[in-house]
């Protein structure tokens, strides 16, 4: 763990693997907001399979994801991302299942990571809530999801370090 690191508690009630979550949180401190947004979208894209069928191909969903991706490369402003989040809120309100709503909530927080970097960890926690809903009382599934999230984050951090070494 990094000096001064204090694990935070999830903002939602979930059955979790706190050990892997604290490792994830420690690693997030080493990345930029754009990098965390990239990681959050990796998680959110996995959650898309659980979005209600009638919303899965909604243009507003794709535009919201695009807004975050374009923000990562400085082609849109945070204001434009916030506008996409407003449309995402309407989609969440129209979800017909708790699983679909949880999946949209995960996507929402991933997109919101452009507004505040801690929202990337919220997307990560929401993905765990989604696992809790789709595979109730299954700590192995939760641990597997958290490990996958950690692996994605570690790979992203490693790729960034390799890129920096090539620049020197």
Describe this structure in words.
The chain is mainly α and 168 residues long. It has one domain. Helix content is 72%, strand content 0%. It has helices at residues 18-28, 33-47, 53-56, 59-72, 78-93, 98-112, 118-134, 139-167. It has 8 helices and no strands.
- Count of helical regions: 8
The gyration radius over C-alpha positions equals: 16 Å
- Sum up the overall morphology in one term: globular
Largest sheet: none
Mean of residue pLDDT?
90
A few lines on this structure:
By secondary structure, the chain is mainly α.
Give the secondary structure arrangement, pairings included.
Blueprint: H1 18-28, H2 33-47, H3 53-56, H4 59-72, H5 78-93, H6 98-112, H7 118-134, H8 139-167
Helix pairs in contact: 1-8, 2-4, 2-6, 2-7, 2-8, 4-5, 4-6, 5-6, 6-7, 7-8
Considering the chains and any ligands shown, give keywords for the structure.
Immunity protein; 168 residues; mainly alpha; disordered N terminus; 8 helices
